[in-house]
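Inputs:
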Amino acid sequence: MDRRSFLRNTAYTSIVLSSGTFPLMASPFAPEITKLTILHTNDVHSRIDPFPMDGSKNEGLGGAAKRASLIKKIRSEEKNVLLFDAGDIFQGTPYFNFFGGELEMKLMSEMGYDAATIGNHDFDLGVDGLEKQLKHANFPLLTCNYDFSDTVLNGKTQPYKIFKKDGIKIGVFGVGIELNGLVPASLYKGTIYKDPLVEAENTSKFLKEQEMCDFVICLSHLGYKYNENKVSDQVLASASSHIDLILGGHTHTFLNTPDRVVNKTNKPVIISQVGWAGIVLGRLDIYFERNKKDTCVTCKNLMVSS
Amino acid sequence: MQKYHYYSILVTLFILSTSCAKVNHLADVKNRNYRIEKASFPVDTKVASMIEPYKAKLDETMNDVIGYNEVELTKGKPNSGLTNWFSDVLLEESQKLVTEKVDFAIQNYGGIRIPVLAQGNVTVGKIYELMPFDNLMYIQELRGSVVLQLFDKIAESGGWPISHSVSMDIAYGKAKNIFINGVALDTAKTYIAAIPDYIANGGDNMIFLKGVKTTNTNALIRDLLINNIRFHTSQGRNIKSNPTPRIKD
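Outputs:
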């Protein structure tokens, strides 16, 4: 099946989009549609200014001030917007070397990020360095598989957060990559890395079945995929049973269109990742139809045939 | 009887209402990514004003002149003005971090990111260009046999930045006539080497360095360079490269 088919615009959703009002058509049988707009970044790596105009490949790309105006514009056009980051906020420009991530956190707060997860480079000034910057962030850091009990970050992160938008309940949680071998032990000392597959399954099951979330999003810094046998977003998606969307990072993968992977219960999981350095802002518009349990008029076939 | 009828209506209503309970179906997903190009989106003035004071402070530091370079230093193999100066600074500064005598320092050739250090004032920003990576200096204890392996690899790639304490020849892609501090290499002896973490962790095919006894000095290579220039400037000395050849091919 065509990888993009689930994103294909049909006549029906064109009407939904152009009408802009929900429920569409005053018919008593018309389903009630709610649109949720998800914006995301990953691996911004302290890229506050656009890349310098030095003849290099990325010259002039990115920049927090432009990203901010784009986000503002989308917020003015859409009712239900959520903004996330999938980690590696820190490291990569002298802004981090000099100010330790303070400006990165302040700008993300100003832009209205709703949550972020923790990347390996976010430990580059140690757990203490990360803890020091939390006071500049008005959004939570989500991680369900780093146990910080024995560190200064104890109680300062949370496994998940639930958002409610227009009657839609969205559960969002975070997973992080194995730190051993990637981050000097002196920097992450005391942090216990737990199996992301197990923790993600438990957290997402809780969000779907106990908290009755309509949609579950995983902010992941595991990496999109690997040739070697290593846990990645693709591995996580196929091993999961309650995740709807993975917003990924770490491998700096520019996915022009999101990938989708069939999960343990034969349902699709969407995976997106938008490169690095804030060159791209990702956007996913999720449409929900409020209807009887066994009825959905506008549902597209999100299934993947294997 | 009527009471019973009343209850049955209630029960029916209840069944109807639960069977009609609505849920939110995931109906469709659409994707659109925005590439932030030079002329794509306006600058948000609030965010720009938040960046401004940090940028000003950064520029001030980056533009800080820390020393003066006497002659243009270029990067080359097997020796060059820039690579000789770089590796000698690493040896000098590493020696300040540990008590045991450091026998030599190396730097991977690809880690030096500018081809030329121009004559004239040198700023902090220039050293960031020269060494943008946050590589740390490690101190490794190497058996002479491992040193030979390391130097063979260096010879194979045409020569790397290596401190003046080493002299060797490249013959048919192998290291020959190796002297460390004027004494021929002893494969049974243990040597103390200052090696950036990237290499010490097995990078650039130096896998055999992984697992040897290693100490992390927690000092950034870049900071060693900056500190060294500042120190010599404070002593009235300019940046000067030691022309002593280390590698002959």
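Remarks. The radius of gyration of chain A is 19 Å. The longest strand of chain A covers residues 280-292.
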